[in-house]
Structure formats: C-alpha cells, structure tokens
C-alpha cells in the first residue's frame, strides 16, 4: 500500500492511494499516521474496501511528510561505496550514526527555505525506513518484518555548518525543512527488493546522483540491528540509510544550492519529490 498525509501544514489527514493512484481519505479509520497508529498496525485495504468505505479526495492537495511526529530520525553516514570514494574517505568498520531533528521534516514538495546562515546547502537522496516495531539489543529479524514501510528522504546538509563550524553533522542537517520526506509511505509487500532500488537526484534538470541500494556498505538488516544495539528504535522512528555518489561536496568545484534551484528526487517504486529552494525570509 501507499499511505500519505495530505492537507495544510500541521493539519494533515491520513490517506491512501488505490491501484489507479486515486487518493482516499482514511480519517474514518485513522487519527493520523504517527508512532501510535504505526505501533498498532496500519490497516491493509484493497481497492474495493477503499472505494466502499473511504471517500475519494479530488484535486491535488498538498502532501505532507507521510509520517507525523517521529520520536527520532537516525541517519547513517558514509554508507555507499561510490560516495565514500568521491569524498576521499575510507569505508567505515562500523556504521556511522548521527541524528537529525524531527522538526526538520517537511512535505515532498514544500519549498526549502535557505537559513540566513547557510553557505553551502547540499542534496542527499536517501532510502528512509519507517520503523514498525521495537528494535533493541539482540534484535536479529528481517527488515520486511521490522519496518512499516519505505520512503524517499532528502538529507539536506549545510556543509559549512556540518564540517567547518565545529564539525557537527547534526547541526548542519537539522534546520527546519532539511528533511523532505515522501511522497508516500510504501509498505514492504509493495517493494520487490529494497536492496536493489535505483536512486536519482536531478538539480535544475541535470542528473547529479544516480545509484542503487545494492552499493550499500551496510545492508538494511545490519543497519537496524546495529542501531538497536546502541539505542532502542520505536515504531514511527525514521532511519535514513545513506546517500550515493553525486553530492555537490564531491565536485571539483561544488555547485551548492541557491535560491531558485529545483531538486527532483526519485527512488524506484517510492515516487518522486520536487522541491524549490527559496531565499532566506
């Protein structure tokens, strides 16, 4: 299934797409798509049930993040071999972890507003896992049983704040709007093999990133097990799994984002994002 949250910011309603891509309002069955409803189990609804019980939503409403109020966003750095090579790093022996503020979440088409302090904003297309069950020390399950679904994430990163001004990854990646998510939360049964998904980023129509989750250093099961060994993952938490080669910071002359730029991100089977960069307000 493909779940969404639609409507104005901070007033989104839960929805789902049927097989023809038509949006249905799930408000009669769900208060929201959040840690509580994910822990209880999101309903699996076929097209006949959607048509009979849940009204169609006409038009093209704004889509918000498909997950509301995650307890935490855990990110894995340096997890694609080609990306490691382009930045001149060595493959890590253990996953590199950092946190991203939940307030960074945004919808898949919401504009990205440059903070007044931003000097070098960079893009990072990533496969996001939405945790569906408690994962702690000793967990040894499979990703298909442990996650509620997958989504596209853009781990937007200001490199000057991340690397130069104290070297804080969380600080450089947590401004409001620095984590566009969606458009959809896609359940595991609708994703053929999350370890072979193609990922792309286009900036102003130019392809900048083109990779595959087959290039991951640490696979999805291993990521969940490792994170669970150092902190407990709970339903609704997000895990961003790393970005392939092609970030601006890997260029000989980095072309960082500026006002007016348009990013288009896609992952096989998970939809597309299109976001406009706006000047600081």
From TrEMBL:
Its domain of life reads: Bacteria
Pfam families reported in the protein's UniProt record: FAA_hydrolase
Q: Does the keyword Metal-binding apply?
A: yes
Keyword terms, alphabetized: Metal-binding
Q: Which GO terms describe its biological process?
A: carboxylic acid metabolic process
Q: Is rRNA-binding a UniProt keyword of this protein?
A: no
Can you tell me which family this protein belongs to? Belongs to the FAH family.
| Descriptive protein name | 2-keto-4-pentenoate hydratase
């Amino acid at each position: 299934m493909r779940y969404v949250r639609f409507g104005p910011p901070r007033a989104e309603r839960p929805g789902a797409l049927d097989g023809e891509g038509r949006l249905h309002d799930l408000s009669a069955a769900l208060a929201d798509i959040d840690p509580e409803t994910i822990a209880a189990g999101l309903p699996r609804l076929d097209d006949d049930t959607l048509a009979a019980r849940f009204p169609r939503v006409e038009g093209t409403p704004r889509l918000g993040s498909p997950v509301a109020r995650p307890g935490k966003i855990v990110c894995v750095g340096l997890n694609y071999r080609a990306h490691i090579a382009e930045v001149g790093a060595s493959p890590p022996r253990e996953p590199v972890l950092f946190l991203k503020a939940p307030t960074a979440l945004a919808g898949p088409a919401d504009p990205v507003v440059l903070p007044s302090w931003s000097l070098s904003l960079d893009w990072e297309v990533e496969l996001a896992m939405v945790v569906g069950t408690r994962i702690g020390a000793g967990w040894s399950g499979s990703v298909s049983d442990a996650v509620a679904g997958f989504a596209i994430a853009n781990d937007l990163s200001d490199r000057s704040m991340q690397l130069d001004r104290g070297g804080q990854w969380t600080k450089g990646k947590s401004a409001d709007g620095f984590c566009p998510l969606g458009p959809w939360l896609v359940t595991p049964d609708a994703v053929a093999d999350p370890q072979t998904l193609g990922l792309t980023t286009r900036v102003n129509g130019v392809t900048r990133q083109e990779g595959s989750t087959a290039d991951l250093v640490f696979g999805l099961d291993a990521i969940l097990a490792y994170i669970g060994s150092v902190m407990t993952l709970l339903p609704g938490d997000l895990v961003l799994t790393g970005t392939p080669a092609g970030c601006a910071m890997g260029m000989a002359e980095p072309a960082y984002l500026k006002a007016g730029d348009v990013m288009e991100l896609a992952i096989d089977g998970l939809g597309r994002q299109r976001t406009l960069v706006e000047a600081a307000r």
